[in-house]
Amino acid sequence: MDKKKFSFRWPSLSINLGFMGTFKLPGLSKLRIPLPTGLYLGGGKLIMFSLSAVVLGFVAGVFLLISKGEQQITFPMLGAVYEAPSMIGTRIVDPETPAQASQTLEVRFPAGVRLDVVEFKNINLGKAGLATSFKISGTSTTDLITIDELIIKNSEFPTMSFDYSEFYELHATSSVLAAGHTFNVTSATATDVTVSSGRGATSYIATDMTVDRIILTQTTSGGDVIIDKLILDNVNAWVGAFDLDYTHIGTVTLQNVKVGDDGDINSADLLIGTNGTVKVNSVQDGVQEAPIWIR
Fold first, then answer.
1. Where residue 262 falls among pLDDT bands split at 50, 70, 90?
2. Interval 89-139: pLDDT, tens
3. Long-range contacts of 199-202 (CB under 8 A, 24+ apart)
4. CA 12 to CA 22: how far, in whole Å?
5. Domain ranges of the chain
6. In 3D, which of 122, 144, 159 has the Cα closest to residue 238?
7. Residue 77, number of CB atoms within 10 A of its CB
8. Which has the closest alpha carbon to 246: 231, 222, 228, 225?
9. Nearest to 138 by CA among 204, 231, 225, 250
10. What 3-state class would DSSP assign to 247?
């Protein structure tokens, strides 16, 4: 094997000895020392000092680390559950379709948590086989999700159901169209809800998304969840009900909403208080019945 040799040369060395003259070391000035460029092991060459190999190894290591790591899940990324007031989520698996990546957006509220605004705007909901596309629920009649104002506008659902709740005011305007509706409410002196200060409270806002379903639930007992405003604006589901249970709300407003799953006005699809008692202090029922069929 032809080996390429490297060498270096000492500079000429001379010493001035005064009256004795000058002393030179000519032997050193011609000294050449071979430098090894590698090690030969079993006929192969192992490069010892290769900068390129070091750089390539570093890059490969960083790439491997990134490829094995998982991106942090932050609201409103889908297929995740968020424990309020945190914006960091964890992956979830839908029990109906465990083999498929979840597209559910879920926020869980522990008792006592305070939220300023929870808003969903321009959201498309629905997945074949799901019974519920939008769910809001406290844990019981003594541990409620307490909301100053609930606004649902410019939205469509096959069915809507409100149960086990207390509303101070219910406004269903004449822009609400339903394939049959039943308001089986209990007139009572309900308590109004006022949440004025949002200081220190978290907001959850999601816009322009396609989602299988949205779930908002209270997860622990021992106190109410407090929300200033809950807003659904242009939230539309082609399958799956809107379901609200165990809430205490100051004002509920339905505006420009369409509800219907069969076009039959003799089979009510907008229901309040039919499966569980709903107490209301003041009701405005302007719902117009029409053969709506959400497809």
1. very high
2. 999 998 888 888 899 999 999 999 999 999 999 999 999 989 999 999 999
3. 200/114, 201/85, 201/114, 201/115, 201/116, 201/226, 201/228, 202/84, 202/85, 202/87, 202/113, 202/114, 202/115, 202/116
4. 13
5. 80-289
6. 159
7. 17
8. 225
9. 225
10. strand
pLDDT reported for residue 12? 53
Helices (H) and strands (E) in the chain — how many of each? 2, 21
pLDDT tops 80 at residue 63:
no
User: With 0-12 CB in 10 A as exposed, 13-18 as middle and 19+ as buried, what is 134?
Assistant: buried
Residue type, 254: L
Radius of gyration (C-alpha) of the chain in whole angstroms: 36
pTM across the whole model? 0.76
Which residues, 6 or more positions from 156, have their beta carbon under 8 angstroms from its beta carbon? Answer: 236, 237, 257, 258, 259, 294
Residues forming a β-bridge with 204: 118
The answer to whether the CB of 235 falls within 8 A of the CB of 126 is no
Q: What pLDDT is stored for residue 39 in this prediction?
A: 47
Place of tokens 């680390």: 65
Q: Residue 100, SS3?
A: coil
CA pair distance 168, 79, nearest whole angstrom: 35
